[in-house]
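Q: I'm teaching a short session on how sequence maps to structure, and I want students to see two examples side by side rather than one. Could you give me a first protein with its sequence written out and its structure tokens following it? Keep the formatting plain so it prints cleanly on a handout.
A: Of course. Example one:
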Amino acid sequence: MAYQIKSILYASDLTPRSPAVFRHAVGLAAKFDARLHAMTVSLPATGLPYMEFMSEEKFDAMRAAGQSKDEDLLRQRIEVFTEAHPEMDVANVLTSIRAVEGDPARCILDMAKHVLADMIVMGSRGHSAIGELILGSVAHKVTMKADVPVILVPIDR
């Protein structure tokens, strides 16, 4: 059986350098004739100290609105990228756009399983060893725990 990549997960942190990472994801998807799934993750809202002043339903609605806003922002950035790069066939490879809330590394790994990703493409700032020890690194965690190859695109350099 020939080597195939059928599904690629692109994880965005919505920073200004994200389009450079997206470019690699689109290029790989086009090269392999794969489906591309785009996602972004926001940290969970704790609700403190606001829970004293609002109902749980209102807080849940506020969280859902934030998630929807993140998904809209990712969608807008992809549209801007598509207009700026008509030579890249985004429309033929992009399958889904999602925003989720939770631990970023865990959410990326879960989404990769959900979309049956054969590869994950994401950016990496390249923290120093001490920086990773103190801050942690989503890219490092994903790379160490993923069941599929992870392509790290350097950003902020």
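Q: Perfect. Now a second example for contrast.
A: Example two:
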Amino acid sequence: MEYTKPLAELTDFFQRFPGIGPKSAQRLAFYLLKMPLSDVEKFAAKMVEAKTTIKCCSLCFNMSASDPCEICSNQNRDKSVICVVAETKDLIAVEKTGEFKGVYHVLQGVISPIDGIGPSDIRIKELLSRIASDNVQEVILTLNPSVEGEATTLYLAKLLKPFNITVSRIALGIPVGSDLEYADEITIARALEGRRKI
């Protein structure tokens, strides 16, 4: 059965979002059609507002409506510790813990030669500039344990060595609630490497 053209186009548009397949796109389209027109108009206005007002912070490259962003402009943050993340969504994940009180640097990607992304395509130069000019004592590399994340971590660790600062990385290991028997060897090895005294 063919959909009416506006519904088909709406469904196709939803399919452009990451992780949204044909069935999910169809559900979203029908849900939107059932919403009151006033809610749809508010939703559309919020999308346009977000797209036009959210930019990158000129200091850390976090996505924010203000420049500098809320974190960089917060005087209570410890500016001597920088947590390096790949994307703003990673920054949000770290912030949700409530444990980190320093500032961030968002690389806006990771080194991925297969995708044509090299060191000059992400915000490495700006990170080095911040470390050289600010009184930075520690850089925490908080990148995903993927092949690209590992490559970027190793590359950054090498570049940061001459600065004579502490360079650390987050511990990787067994998720809470999982069983050791189902963990792969690399995960268990990383958990052992990241062990600490109790």
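Q: What should students look for in example two?
A: Point them to this: The domain at 76-193 is CATH 3.40.1360.10 (Dna Topoisomerase Vi A Subunit; Chain: A, domain 2). Also worth mentioning: The beta strands are 55-56, 63-64, 78-85, 102-106, 138-141, 166-169.
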